[in-house]
Amino acid sequence: MLQKRIKVDTANITLGMFVAQLDRSWLETPFIERGFVVSKVDQIELLRKFCRHVYVDVGRSAIVEKEILSAHKRSAEVRDPFTDTFILDRRALRANRANRGMRGVVRFLQRLKPARRDEGESTVSTRDEAPAAAAAFGMACEHMREVLAGVKKGRQPNIENLKGAVIPMVDSVMRNPSAQIAAVIV
């Protein structure tokens, strides 16, 4: 007998669904059993915390296939928090967020007008600033990974730690904006 598994976003999981597979290894989650019927709201919250989507086994679920298919169709509609519109593909949402990431920060930093500097004047050559710009960008990325990992675990972000990552980037942009842009694009 063939199993019919349907991909469902964790935002659309309901009681009675049989979760047969996760979007990650079972070992990365607090679930002891591999495959279970969702019978408690706590289970739904844990699934939402650890997974983006799951695969629901239609034959082993306590609800009808029509409800599972409805949850699957709702999974395709993802609200974009930046524009407050619906996007029908999660990949489009991720691309939209990526475009607003570090490049957006660099664009913002470029708009800052230094007090004692003529527009477009660099105090250091791009060649001399490039290594410092790349190091500042790498450090900022590493700090962001740590912050996001902490947020996923429920911790508050350390603002002082983030300032320590952003200040070298700002300093680099102030010395030579082109070097920081080259570090971000490469």
- Counting DSSP H or I runs of 4 or more residues, the number of helices is 7
The number of distinct structural domains comes to: 2
Tell me the β content: 5-15%
Largest sheet: 4 strands, antiparallel
DSSP strand tally: 6
Spell the H/E element sequence.
EEEHEHEEHHHHH
Distance between the termini: 51 Å
Q: Name the structural class.
A: alpha+beta
Taking Cα atoms only, what radius of gyration do you get, to the nearest Å? 23 Å
Q: Which shape, going by the Cα principal axes?
A: elongated
- Strand arrangement in the largest pleated sheet: 1-4-2-3
Mean pLDDT over all positions: 75
Helix content: 40-55%
Compose a concise summary of this entry.
The chain is of the alpha+beta class and about 190 residues long.
What would the keywords be for this entry?
alpha+beta; 12% strand; 186 residues; 2 domains
Chart the SSEs and their pairings:
Blueprint: E1 5-9, E2 18-22, E3 36-37, H1 41-50, E4 53-57, H2 65-75, E5 78-80, E6 85-87, H3 90-99, H4 102-111, H5 126-152, H6 159-175, H7 177-185
Helix pairs in contact: 4-7, 5-6, 5-7, 6-7
Structural description of this entry:
The strands form two sheets. Strands 1-4-2-3 form a four-stranded antiparallel sheet. The chain has a two-stranded antiparallel ribbon with strand order 5-6. It folds into two domains: 5-93, no CATH class; 101-185, no CATH class. A hairpin with a 4-residue loop joins strand 5 (78-80) and strand 6. The protein is elongated and about 70 Å long. The chain contains seven helices and six strands. It has helices spanning 41-50, 65-75, 90-99, 102-111, 126-152, 159-175, 177-185, and strands at 5-9, 18-22, 36-37, 53-57, 78-80, 85-87. The chain is α+β, with helices and mostly antiparallel strands. Mean pLDDT is 75; it is low at 79-89. Helix content is 51%, strand content 12%.
